[in-house]
Amino acid sequence: MAVERTLSIIKPDATRRNLTGKINAKFEDGGLRIVAQKRVQLSQAQAESFYGVHRERGFFNDLVSFMISGPVVLQVLEGENAIARNREIMGATNPANAAEGTIRKEFAESIEANSVHGSDAPETAAQEIAYFFAGSEIVG
Ligand code: IDP
Ligand code: MG
Asked: In the chain, how many domains are there?
């Protein structure tokens, strides 16, 4: 197995409810290390660009509004198979379909306000990490 890095975002629904620590415990208990972390307010341009792949989807404008509705916590998670492992810890996009014990099952409010983002493949992980972090901000 390979050690990977993946981009995680704790979304505004979760920061609003003060769930950062409980969500970080899920990552750490699940075997991932938080090797970079910063709390920021995304701009509309940043959110639109980050979710650009979804620009044609009906939910795009609502998603961007949601992502700038409050602070987010940007993170780099590291560990064995971190990209897939994080997706397991997060659970399915729609909390109605998320497995017991996952972040989205426990904390998500809706399919949109689903508490966390996680990269979905090695290429997107590398792009998403570079979008938000300088190499010097990541300390493994
Ligand atoms: P993912 O976050 O599990 O990778 P994606 O399909 O990449 O899911 O969607 C990105 C984000 O867009 C989701 O996490 C969620 O916040 C939002 N989203 C996805 N599908 C819907 C939908 O059908 N309605 C509203 N928001 C959605
Ligand atoms: Mg996705």
From this structure: 1
